[in-house]
Automatic annotation (TrEMBL):
It comes from the Bacteria. Belongs to the cytochrome P450 family. This is Cytochrome P450. It comes from Amycolatopsis tolypomycina. Its cofactor is heme. Keywords: Heme, Iron, Metal-binding, Monooxygenase, Oxidoreductase. PROSITE patterns: CYTOCHROME_P450. The lineage of its organism: Bacteria, Bacillati, Actinomycetota, Actinomycetes, Pseudonocardiales.
Amino acid sequence: MTPSHTDQLPRFPFEAASALEPPAEWAEFREKCPVARVALASGDEAALITRYDDVKSVLSDPRFTRPTAGDNAARVADTESGGVFNSEMASVLPQHGEDHLTWRRMIGKWFTAKRMNALRPGMAAMAEQLIDEMVAKGAPGDLKAGLAFPLPVWVICDMLGVPDTDRDRFAHWSDVMLSMTRYTQAEFDAAQAEFGRYMGGHIAAKRAEPGDDILSALIADGDGWSDAKLAATGIGLLIAGHETTANMIAKMTAMLLADRSRWERLLADPSLVRTAVEEALRADANAGVGMTRYLTEDFEVGGTVLPAGTTAMCSMAAANRDEGVFADAAGVDLGRSPNPHLAFGAGAHACLGQPLARTELQVVLEVLLRKLPTLELAVPAGELRRIEGLAVGGLRELPVRW
C-alpha cells in the first residue's frame, strides 16, 4: 500500500460544506460505489465501506480486528503523529480474542444500566451548576466550553477516581492523542509520556489507598494486571469518556437548535428525549473517520472481494443515512423508533461506554430543556465551525443565547 498509487484516489475523510451537513460523497458512494478505494491522510490506500449492511457485517465479523503492529495496515495518518491510532496504548490493550473479551467484561461492569441510573442525579446536579455558571457570565455563551466539555470530564474523572481539577491537562493530552494531523510526532510522544506518568502515579496512589472507583476495582480484581495495562485502560477511558461525548453534546444541541421546530417539539413533549438522543447520534454529520478493520483473509462484502491485507474503513455515519434501512434517512425524526444506528459500532469492538454516553446526552438535554427553554444559536447554523484533523468530529465552539 504505497502512497505512489493513491494520487488519483478520493481523499478520505471527505470535506463537507458546513459543520452540520454531511459530505455529499457519503450518499454518492453508498449508491454507486459502496466498497470504494480511497486514500487516507497518510497517502495509504483503504477500502471505504458506506452501506449499512456491509458496515455492520465487517464490524461484526470476529475474524477481523483493529490493525496491530505486525500488520502492514494502512496508516490513518503518518505525516504527523497519527494520534491514538499509532499509540502505545493501542498496543498494550488486548485487541482481540479471549483476552479482549475478558478486558471488556472487567470494564463493562462499570457501565451497567443500574450504575448509570445511580449516576443520573449527580450528572443532573453538575449540569445545572454548569448552566448556572454559564448564565451568570451572560449571553452569548459557548455551550461547548461551558457545559458540553466539562460535564463528561467531571463524570469520567469521578468514575476513575482522578481529580476533576486536572481536567485541563486531560483536555490537552487527549486533544493531542485524538488529533491525526495537528501535532508532530514529538508533541504526541510528549503528551503520551506525560499522560502515562500521571496515570502511573495515580495507580500507585490507588494501590496504597483504594477508593470506590474503576481503577481501584481493577487493581483488586484485575488478576495481576500490569501497571502498563492499568494505565492504558485509564487513559483510554479518560479519552473515550469525555472527548467523544463532549463533541456529541454540542453537535446534538446544535442540530436541535438549527431547526427551531425540533427544540419546540421537545419542549412540548420531553418524553421524546430518549429517541431524540438516538436520532442525534444517527444523524451525526460530523462523525470523524470511522472504524478501521484489518482483513487477515479474503472477504466478500457488497459484491466485492477484498483481498487479505486490505485495511477496511467503515463509515458508520454514512451507513446511518442508508435509505434502505432508515425511512427519510436524510431527515431528522425525533420520535424515530426503532433506530438501529451504528454510531457506537457493532460486534466485539462496539463502544464499551455507550450506556454512559447515552445517559449523559439524555441528562444534558433534559436539564437544558428545563432550565433554558429559550435557548437558541447565537450565530447562523451555517457559520458554526468544525474542528479539523480530529479522529472524532466536532464543533470548535457552540455560541448560544437564551
